[in-house]
Design brief:
Order of helices and strands: EHEHHEHHEHEH
Helix content: 40-55%
Shape: globular
CATH class: Alpha Beta
Structural class: mainly alpha
Distance between the termini: 17 Å
Number of strands: 5
Number of domains: 1
Radius of gyration: 16 Å
Strand content: 5-15%
Number of helices: 7
């Protein structure tokens, strides 16, 4: 499972893994957000979409349910290795980061649905950009990183930090970590 704050290189690495023939489950939060806000596309947002929904608890519940369904859908494939762009505990991490209240219903899935490896991409100022899909400031990216790291550790995971390097080097590193090379 590959995670990290915004603009840390996750999408580029996921694409590189796919280019090498690996099966990847893509992040889907933006489309869920667009549906919640009645936007035609993700480009319609001018503020952080996660914070702009009308009912954050209902949104986070749908997001959690969607990530669980995504996790469970892997059982329907014949793939031995699947890379996830964000995981179930990310919902809890973001809620914690943005001081949203949650109950045990948001924590339990983090213990029940387990990933083999947690690969965390740190904030990287040199590649950080904001655009139509990234609204968070660099400072928010750092806060999100800290919340992700803390959350995954609280769920009992050992975290592997992905080095700041080229997409090829990062992809090779990930494949070494999960013994795919």
């Amino acid at each position: 499972m590959i995670t990290g704050g915004p603009s840390t290189g996750k999408t580029s690495v996921i694409k590189a893994l796919e280019d090498r023939g690996y099966f990847c489950m893509h992040e889907f939060v933006r489309h869920l957000t667009a549906t919640e806000n009645g936007a035609d596309t993700v480009e319609d947002f001018t503020t952080n979409p996660i914070l702009s929904v009308k009912d954050p608890m209902a949104f986070n519940t749908k997001l959690l349910e969607g990530r669980i369904a995504q996790y469970e859908s892997v059982n329907e494939t014949d793939k031995k290795i699947v890379f996830f762009d964000r995981g179930i505990p990310d919902v809890h991490a973001y809620m914690s980061c943005f001081d949203q209240q949650f109950d045990e219903g948001f924590k339990r899935p983090g213990f029940d649905f387990r990933y083999d490896h947690i690969l965390l991409m740190p904030p990287w100022l040199e590649i950080y950009i904001t655009d139509t899909e990234r609204f968070e400031t660099y400072a928010e990216s750092e806060r999100i990183f800290a919340a992700l790291e803390r959350t995954y550790q609280n769920f009992g995971y050992e975290i592997t930090l992905i080095p700041k390097a080229s997409v090829t080097e990062r992809t090779d590193f990930i494949l070494d970590v999960v013994n795919c090379k």
